[in-house]
Design brief:
It is a single chain. The protein is built from 28 helices and 33 strands. The chain is α+β, with helices and mostly antiparallel strands. Strands 6-5-9-3-2-12-15-14 form an eight-stranded mixed sheet, with no helix packed on it. The protein has a five-stranded mixed sheet with strand order 17-18-19-21-20, covered by helices on one side. A four-stranded antiparallel sheet has the order 10-11-16-13, with no helix packed on it. Helix 16 packs parallel to helix 18. It is globular and about 90 Å long. The protein starts with 6 loop residues before the first strand and ends with a helix. The model has no long low-confidence stretch (mean pLDDT about 95).
Amino acid sequence: MSQPQAIHLSDYRPPAYRVTHTELSFDLDPSATRVKARLHLERHPEREAGEALELDGEQLTLKSIAIDGQKLGENEYRLTEGGLRIERVPSRFLLDTEVEIAPEANTALEGLYQSGGMFCTQCEAEGFRRITFYPDRPDVMATFSTTVIGDAGSLPVLLSNGNPVEQGELPNGRHFVTWEDPHPKPCYLFALVAGDLKKVEDRFTTMSGRDVTLQLWVEEENLGKTDHAMASLKRAMRWDEETYGREYDLDLFMIVAVNDFNMGAMENKGLNIFNSAAVLTHPNTATDAAFQRVEGIVAHEYFHNWSGNRVTCRDWFQLSLKEGFTVFRDQSFSADVNSAPVKRIEDVSFFRTAQFAEDAGPTAHPVRPDHYIEIGNFYTLTIYEKGAEIVRMLRNLVGWEAFRRGSDLYFSRFDGQAVTIEDFVSCMAEASGQDLDQFMLWYSQAGTPEIDAHGEYDYARAEYRLILRQRTPATPGQADKQALHIPVRLGLVGTKSGRDLALTLDGESLGRDAVIHLREDEQEFVFTDLAEAPVPSLARGFSAPVKLNFPYSREDLAFLLANDSDGFNRWDAGQRLALLALDDLIAAHRNGVEKVMDNRVVDAFRTLLTGETDDKAVLAEMLTLPSEAYIAEQQPLVDVDAIHAARQFVKQSLATALRDEFLAVYQANRDDSAYAPEPDQIAGRSLKNVALSYLMSIEDEEGVELSQRQFEADHNMTDVRHALTLLTHSSRDDLADPALKAFGQKWAHDPLVMDQWFSIQVSRPQADALERVKFLMDHPAFSLTNPNKVRALIGTFAQNRVNFHRLDGEGYKLLADVVIELNRLNPEIAARLITPLTRWARYDETRQDLMKDELERIRAEDLSPNVYEVVEKALA
């Protein structure tokens, strides 16, 4: 392929021609689907008369083309590498085209493709150009009328966006359904599904009294796995009405479960298409985490109806406008219906591990990038998760009431339009009366800001002097960074009382929990009238997506762990305390000296295990050690083996010292009542299973027996999977092999459960993990063309740090082999899979060379733009 060219935000121009209405007709056939399109086009008022019409199109066979009913000759249009060009067109006209496409050959899963015997679409970001010739960009918004024609026997269900307005029988055993969507939308929100599906139906009454039909379409064998998704949808609809005043706007809302899907789900207007893993649940097959994930994803895609569909992006550089805002909305929803402290801990734990790593790597980019080669590569944690953290900061800066006024203004002012991040932030500024110009830098600067903090208590003056300095490291293409507006939420915890002290700053009383604003490179804040020396509790609730550096002693951290009123910062103090102990042990392993456990960590854990708790879910998080991935992010150079050994040593030391306490916690939280994915039950299971994981880390007889009993009891998938993981990850094959065999035989018929079976095996720390990957790639349940299988097997193995980073480089070689093959089949998945190799600079010289060798081997291939862009950045 020729070298792909970058697209720049600065080059944005509105389209030369707008589409006001789109009429589509699909005559479905696996190898030769015919798509007729009639586009109602008019010149954009901001563009000059007489410009050529350029439409995007890929892998289309043009059968006919006409303007205003007059067929065009071959000299009146030109097929280009990227689409179709017509030099002379009227300022307003109808364009009719007919194309042929081959859905069964579409392994990239973009545009119209087949999943099993089902036809389905995925058009975001640029998949619609694989369906018909069209201005495939988000600022072209049109109403759609779609007729779907298919075989009545094999395709009894024919779905598209909007409301069904006509249906009927056709000759030769075929039938049709016509759908109309009255709301203008960009083509990336178009959807079509056709197959042998069954529906689960329910109703929802909106706040204005309208009756909405809700449908979940699944294959017949999955009918019993839809209850939770339907209940989650109804909760999300009610929450969006009560929290944001947003009411659903059609008479019908549909969700379809699809086995082959690149993403988690897609918010197509009125017809959400979901990866089956993101919608199907049952206590026997899905874990608590899966139930919560489904609830969050269902909510996320529904919330897009307003934050993404009714108001959409002007261009793909504004992607976080819809995704960051909607992630914030779904996080808030999940916090409201579950445990808010645990939700925040889970989100931040993932963010600080994965997004911070993205910010520190070669593919780092701003939340609003200024250029890209392949937009599919920018569906990243930075766009989604960091974008959500920026919206959260904005909410905290202006306050909830002003934020709600700003969102109402945004939805009303820009309803039916494609807009920019400036439009969103300006509504918040207008509603709050605040100047948010400096805040906009969060969208344009890449990298993770760091705050270096220092504080001193003046006994004579009863003052606490806090100095904050901010800096953002250089990132690719951005060497110099400006000072950001960073809200820092804090409390001062008295060392005598153990309570939050009253805060007085510049003569103003701020209460006992306040937000201070860091706007300069360095600022000083002096808190007065403090009767006792405090320990500062900084960045409470993770008030900004920054790294905070404060010289806490281990005694300070143990004190905050015991006394901080902020649940998140209590958890964070425990993580910091554990990290200090781990740092010592990593150094000891590297230097070949004896490892010694820090008793302050043991004492802190003993207090947690034996003390009173009103939130078992939070306690489970506090008892969970930092992951190897997070530990690695704190190290200047990643020593894979030392990190693994140090973490195992800490876990086993805690288990040995506190065996009876962990056993008591396990026994106290056993529950044989009927399974329910409710917060109290989830909290108890989580705490019980954390305790069991410690007991199994030393593989004492009682821990082994409890794990075997829990596995065999088969009470629910949460407990079964956890027990199977512990048995599989043990050092004893006599525990692992029988359990894996029994589980695999029982669930061989269920693709989603088999994905769990794959992941458990290839994440084990034993040295045979790589050989298991190779063996399982030939398993009948694995397919390289199914993204879920690839993620479960190859993606999970690439996160198995001690085995993926083997010194012989075989882990890297296997990943590169898969990427090269997927580059031909599904470039989007291939590009996402490369990420672990792109972090080569964090490792020792031997591993660096091995990883770079594999990247060079990939680069030597005929690469898709997706893979080319990632590899070039990684090697730059």
